[in-house]
């Protein structure tokens, strides 16, 4: 049986209701990293999407309210790490603290970007454009290098982390 649908104007409604409606869309989980003058920085994000295969473009959207926002907006290079089921602790670490590198294995790319070891995919990127997106910005980037491995994804749905069982 399908639950009764609720309809509302997102501007008039409680912000929580709108956020919960958006949370009905299951997403993958990423950790975005960049180098800063003070050292490596990371942030957990699910606002990631593929834009184009040719040229290889992706986007992500940092919140303007984040203390990490100015560093990612200033970064010419960064990496997007698609996180695996076994990387829940890494995602949680970077959701709370941009300096969670002491708890994980990582290396530095030739361009100086911190790279998390063991992610399902690592997309090394160069920023090509930024756009205003309300309380977020939209960063469009060209993917310059990809590292990938097989594994089960870590997903986010309804405010909680989970996994995907392709057999069901």
Condensed summary:
By secondary structure, the chain is mainly β. The protein has helices at 15-22, 69-74, 88-96, and strands spanning 27-28, 30-36, 39-45, 48-52, 57-60, 77-82, 106-108, 114-116, 121-133, 136-148, 155-157, 160-162. The protein has three helices and twelve strands, in the order αβββββαβαββββββ.
What secondary-structure arrangement, pairings included, does this model have?
Elements: H1 15-22, E1 27-28, E2 30-36, E3 39-45, E4 48-52, E5 57-60, H2 69-74, E6 77-82, H3 88-96, E7 106-108, E8 114-116, E9 121-133, E10 136-148, E11 155-157, E12 160-162
Antiparallel strand pairs: 1-11, 2-3, 2-6, 4-5, 5-10, 6-9, 7-8, 9-10, 11-12
Describe the overall structure.
- This protein has 168 residues and is mainly beta.
- It has helices at 15-22, 69-74, 88-96; strands at 27-28, 30-36, 39-45, 48-52, 57-60, 77-82, 106-108, 114-116, 121-133, 136-148, 155-157, 160-162.
- A hairpin with a 2-residue loop joins strand 11 (155-157) and strand 12.
- The longest helix has 9 residues, at 88-96.
- The radius of gyration is 17 Å and the shape is globular.
- It starts with 14 loop residues before the first helix and ends in a 6-residue tail after the last strand.
């Amino acid at each position: 049986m399908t639950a009764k649908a609720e309809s509302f104007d997102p501007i008039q409604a409680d912000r929580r209701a709108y956020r919960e409606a958006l949370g009905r869309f299951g997403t993958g989980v990423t950790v975005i990293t960049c180098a800063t003058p003070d050292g490596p920085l990371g942030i957990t994000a699910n606002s990631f999407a593929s834009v184009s295969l040719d040229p290889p473009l992706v986007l992500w959207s940092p919140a303007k309210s984040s203390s990490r926002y100015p560093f990612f907006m200033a970064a010419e290079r960064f990496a997007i790490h698609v996180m695996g089921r076994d990387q829940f602790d890494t995602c949680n670490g970077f959701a709370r603290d941009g300096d969670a590198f002491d708890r994980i294995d990582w290396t530095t790319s030739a361009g100086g970007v911190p790279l998390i070891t063991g992610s399902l995919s690592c997309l090394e990127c160069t920023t090509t454009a930024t756009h205003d997106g309300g309380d977020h910005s939209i960063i469009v980037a060209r993917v310059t290098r990809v590292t990938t491995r097989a594994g089960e994804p870590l997903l986010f749905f309804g405010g909680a982390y989970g996994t995907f069982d392709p057999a069901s």
